[in-house]
Amino acid sequence: MDVKITTLGGKEAGQVKLSEEIFGLEPREDILQRVVRWQLAKKQQGTHQAKGRADIARTGAKMYKQKGTGRARHSSARAPQFRGGGKAHGPVARSHEHDLPKKVRALGLKHALSAKAKSSSLIIVDELTLAEAKTKALVANFATLGLTNALVIGGAELDRNFKLAATNIPNIDVLPIQGINVYDILRRGTLVLSKAAVEALEERFK
Question: Of 22, 51, 96, 118, whose CB count within 10 A is highest?
Fold first, then answer.
């Protein structure tokens, strides 16, 4: 699959041949859903905690005598049916993380990349570098490329000026190649890869 390379200024800078095994697959929604669910579950803190009847600080004395009142038999005021009592079956602090095979994770990344390539939402840029860390200049470059909602993936080391300039732009995420993931690819409209990122991906899946 041949894709043209552009500069940040929107000029052509040649072509690159993308691997069909990485960018040419037929995207499968079930695999993408599994990987996104795994990512979000791993990210979830799981610190929600409600007090059960054992956690409530209340008297343990019997509320009223067992017989003769005509009322229901009750013992503890900590029971869930009473105001100020414990929560029945409330949330407890726990880990939401679950396992997902490495092969499925790798396949999910390939399918996410293929989905962007198939929908023509993939742009290859020769270099992600700026002479100065000026957000205004970078916004103008992105406008030339038609980018309003994008994930930008650079090489192993991001250009400091580019990273600083992109920080304040809404709906633009910038990550090094080590941080590429399925969720971030799918949540942004366009995927922008540098030449270094493409080479690193092809080396990774070799």
Answer: 22
3-state secondary structure of 105: helix
Q: Which residues of 121-155 are buried (b: 16+ CB within 10 A; e: fewer)?
A: bbbbbbbbebeebeeeebbebbeebebeebbbbbb
Q: Tell me the residue type at 80.
A: P
Contacts (Cβ under 8 Å, ≥6 apart) of 204: none
Range of the domain at 78: 46-95
Q: Starting from the edge strand earliest in sequence, which strands make up the sheet with 12-17, in order?
A: 12-17, 2-6, 122-125, 190-194, 150-153, 172-175
Q: Is the pTM of this model over 0.70?
A: yes
Structural contact between residues 39 and 33, judged by C-beta atoms closer than 8 angstroms: no
Q: Which residues contact 137 (CB under 8 A, 6 or more apart)?
A: 130, 165
**Together in a domain, 56 and 112:** no
Same domain flag for 30 and 77: no
Tell me the sheet residues that pair with 5.
124
Q: How far apart are CA 37 and CA 45, in angstroms?
A: 14
